[in-house]
Design a protein that fits this description.
single chain; 346 residues; alpha/beta; TIM Barrel; 8-stranded mixed β-sheet; 13 helices; 11 strands
Length: 346
């Protein structure tokens, strides 16, 4: 485990990443995994270099005893390892729940049957009553809940569960929907009203763009992967790549948010896939930095280059706000700085 953490840390640094949310455990081995992270943090400190900042997501399927063990670590944001100068590097993240499957496998839970599989709507991995009970229990303990939800029926069920504890904009625990791919205007308005986090992966379009309309049709496709609408409605959206499912490189994810097309095959969607859902580079970078820090309860120390904030930053070989968007993915990391210390030079 320590070797894996070291390798992942080196890879992240080379891509300009200083912080991440990591889903490492969905069973009774959580303490062992924490111990491995702590060991690597201690090694890094002895070497004079800050480690990788990690918010540890605590996996949970349907065993309530596992959930109870996770809630004993509450609240989210609790520090498990920190340095007096460099700040916190290992914190308790959210309880992670899987609500449905995937678009590729037609297991994402949809309101309507798949166009290319009329006998199937996908299915929930957790019944709505159980989901609501677990959300209420975690919220009462002060633990953030993140739910994997791709299909619009699953997003609906998750929003309903969160609405029971958030009220109108009460986001004390900052609950979130991971992926939040298939949405309709009514769902997006409810998400905005309750200030539910949308934790999305624009790079997923690299694969999904070829099958979305054949699976769900143009009407639902036009209001899904809805990063533009999320910005307009003020939904707190934070971006990631969901590595190792997708590339860990943030620049690839940012380019997909801005272009919504394959830069290597521009003829396939010249203006982008439903271009009204595109965002500009400033919005995409903010979603990776400020919004992601907010999702981890670290918005007062991370996510901005400003007085009083920890000096985590990356130097690139070009200005991604000025170059043609199709060149963003080609930018190279010259240096990664964490807590004011250089941890990688390209």
């Amino acid at each position: 485990m320590r070797a894996f953490v070291r390798h992942a840390t080196d890879k992240a640094r080379s891509l300009g990443i200083t912080s991440c949310g990591s889903y490492d455990s969905d069973g009774p081995d959580f303490d062992e995994i924490v111990s491995a992270y702590v060991s690597v943090c201690e090694e890094s400190r002895q070497a004079g270099l800050p480690p990788l900042r990690v918010s540890m997501q605590c996996g949970f399927w349907d065993r309530e005893d596992v959930l109870d063990a996770r809630l004993a670590l509450a609240p989210s944001g609790r520090r498990l390892w920190e340095d007096p100068v460099w700040g916190a590097f290992l914190t308790v993240g959210a309880v992670k729940i899987f609500g449905d499957g995937t678009l590729g496998g037609r297991t994402a839970w949809m309101r309507r049957p798949y166009l290319d599989a009329p006998g199937s709507n996908g299915f929930p991995l957790l019944e709505p009553d159980a989901l609501g009970r677990f959300v209420r229990k975690a919220d009462a303990a002060g633990m953030q809940v993140l739910v994997h939800a791709i299909g619009d029926a699953c997003v609906d069920a998750v929003v309903s569960a969160f609405e029971e504890v958030t009220g109108a904009g009460n986001d004390r625990c900052r609950h979130g929907i991971v992926h939040c791919q298939f949405t309709t205007p009514d769902l997006l308005k409810r998400i905005a009203k309750s200030r539910i986090l949308a934790m999305v992966q624009p790079i997923f379009l690299a694969d999904d763009i070829h099958i979305i309309e054949s699976r769900v049709g143009p009407e639902l496709a036009s209001t899904s992967y809805a990063w533009g609408d999320m910005k307009t409605l003020g939904i707190p959206a934070c971006y990631s790549t969901d590595a190792p499912v997708g590339s860990l490189n943030p620049l690839e994810c940012i380019e997909w948010a801005v272009l919504r097309r394959d830069s290597g095959n521009p003829a396939s969607h010249p203006g982008g896939f439903y271009p009204g859902q595109r965002v500009d580079a400033d919005t995409a970078v903010d979603a990776y930095t400020e919004a992601s820090a907010y999702s981890a309860f670290a918005e007062n120390s991370l996510g901005r280059i400003a007085p009083g904030y920890l000096a985590d930053l990356v130097l690139l070989d070009r200005d991604i706000f000025r170059i043609p968007p199709e060149e963003i993915h080609g930018a190279k990391v010259l240096e990664t700085v964490c807590a004011g210390e250089s941890v990688y030079r390209g």
